[in-house]
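sorry for the late reply, my laptop died twice this morning and i had to redo everyting from scratch. anyway the thing you sent over, i finally got around to it. pasting the sequence first so we're on the same page, its 227 residues, then the predicted structure underneath. double check i copied it right bc i was rushing
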Amino acid sequence: MSSLDNLASFSNAVLSTRIDGDWSYDPISGRYRGKNGRFLSREAVEVLVDGRIKKLNNQLQDFTRRLVNGDITIDQWQGSVREALKPAHIQAAMVGVGGKQALSQSDYGRIGQRLRSEYAYLQNFASDLLGGRVSGAMALARIGLYAESVRGSYWEGATIRREKEGYGLMRRILDPQAQHCQDCLGYASRGTVPIGSLPMPGQRCACRARCKCRVEYLRQQAPTVIV
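ok and here's the structure:
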């Protein structure tokens, strides 16, 4: 099986939420391993998350375009967006935390809290649309933020997973292909710091949901003892 086939298999398992049946997370290597014994790289997993976000963005763009064209009502639009957001956030968190079996009640509670925040933003968005304060072009641009917010659920899950595995350090990695706000540049310049010292990508930065940064986790080095 090629690396592309591996990624497609993992993607299908995530979308169906049968990830623990076809794939297992190996805490020693920090990677997912398929039934064929082959590992999936961290980069491949992040590509999958990006792909899920793009798929969601296409859905949300379609709903919004239909609303702007008068094909659906504001209530239908809002309901469709909510229904699309929920599974995407759950799937991203599931991948981040290490599989469906690794999702705890506190994880579901955290996902629920994030979704409630997104739904509140969506309600304000709907009010702006009804009030004529947002044009069609602005609406299409703004809806993309809801898709990008899914990345935050992935990184929150990944941080919890790495802490459980004994990683105590983190550092912000800038995407060389992206434009970065001063906040993200400042986080990256701090180098390696204890986990929890830096916000997740998309949090407390001007990029907001469009943030393209990633996080690298490291274990605390034992001090050298000279005898």
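The radius of gyration is 19 Å.
thats about all i looked at so far, will dig more tmrw
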